[in-house]
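Complex 529.
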Amino acid sequence: MKKAIRHILLAAISIIAATATISATELHIIPEPSYIDLEAEGYYEVTAKTRLVVNDEAWNPAERFSEYMMEYFNTDKPMRMGKRGKGIKIRIDSCVPYEGYELTSSEEGVLIIGGSEAGIFYGLQTLRQIIVTRNGKVPYGFIADEPSLAYRGVHLDVARHFFGVEDVKRYIDIIAAHKVNRLHWHLTDDQGWRIEIKRYPELTEKGSMRKETLIGHGLRPEWWDGKPYGGYYTQEQIRDVVDYAAKRYITIIPEIEMPGHAQAALHALPWLGCEEQEVDVWTMWGVTPEVMCAGKESTYEFLENVLMEVLELFPSELIHIGGDECPKDRWKECEHCQAKIKAEGLGGEEQLQGYLVARIEKFLNQHGRKMIGWDEILDGGVTPTATVMSWRGIEGGIYAAQRGNEVVMTPMKLCYFNFYQTESREGEGLHIGGHIPFELVYSWDPFEGLNPEERKFIIGAQCNMWSEYIKDMETLEHMLLPRLAAMSEVQWATERRDENSIRQRMESMRKFYDACGWRYAPYYFEGRK
Ligand code: TNX
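Predicted structure with TNX bound:
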């Protein structure tokens, strides 16, 4: 009830505020808050000496904010924090939407009320943007905000090229500043297994190293670099990263690829394949015919043992099992796979994949988790409870939503941040191809093609960062920024996007990126698509 009154009040004020002197766009916040009302004059100035007034429940977001301010004011002294006094006051109130916040700036200081710790964190991110882009001066006024989508995801492939703990933490810092709340961590693939599994040490001992890497797009022998390449995370490092993300209100969704995209695992443990054939950790890109055998019980036992350790490390409710691009050539010839098809009364190899995925989903459910997979999991007949990540287009997502499955939209043509950002490609290194400029990301409506009933099943939107051609942190940041700003507004402010407004606000965002030392691509700012 209290909540409803608050909403009506906000709606009423917003009509009056339409005539306010300083407009929302002048405040330049990305993603755009749902409601801004500024006073004509006056500001509260935040300095390195400003006090944070906070009680125990909001201690973590306050500590994060203090770190941001130490960086901004270039000091090694944390902000003063206490339970009483004047300055930036923060508290939780369940009347505010869960991930939402209300920010008031007045002579008294700045007050941030969040619906949760996460809500406070987002309010503090907004405050940080104002401070950094307006020299610490926070205009008197009121901001109320909450996200449109519950799942606001960014993906990172560390299998094709590996990014160490410090790099991943920096990536987390960047996405947290864009109010993203899910990191989809692609930990295994044909070219490398990157997560320590105690039960099968071979996975990282053998499966994390490849002999060399293909550097061009073609398959000429001189295009392999001849250099061994590898890397992996120990379980201790994984725990550290999961904790680091959680302190920034980001849930990490681990992805363990099955039954395809698993050649590195087959190299380490040849009995995972149909013929137990010796294969290398793959040294090229694309789709390999070498996949896990879906006939032998030993494969299921392996997958469950691996997942048991994964569940220990990752508290996320959703666990990603891949499921994409699994050629069925080996299965067609395999006596175990054929026997399984017969014994289970399956229609063929596609249904065999459906059987594997459904069995793994059941296992995850028994352990209190939910399964998410790429949209190929629809091909073998999907269970009603699986969450579907729609990447080949939006059709899979629409089909899934119509059946009542939850969906994360991430169609390749709009969300693949490993694609080029400019048509001319001038000044760019070698990338996989494609063309997704900032404007295209921004124009994306994740609800396209869905009626209001079906929309309810779209839980989120995500951009993907596949690392075949992304080898270092500088390139990773260049591919992520500034497109993430466009994506974050699609995720957070889905219904209130405005191309002219974001163009103006991006000038401040650029200042913000510069202040943080993040390396963005210049094209959008130069007007090059
Ligand atoms: C398709 S998206 C893949 C990845 C590649 C990517 C390259 C998906 C589920 N599979 O394995 O890295 O294209 O853009």
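Residues 14-21 have pLDDT under 50 and may be disordered.
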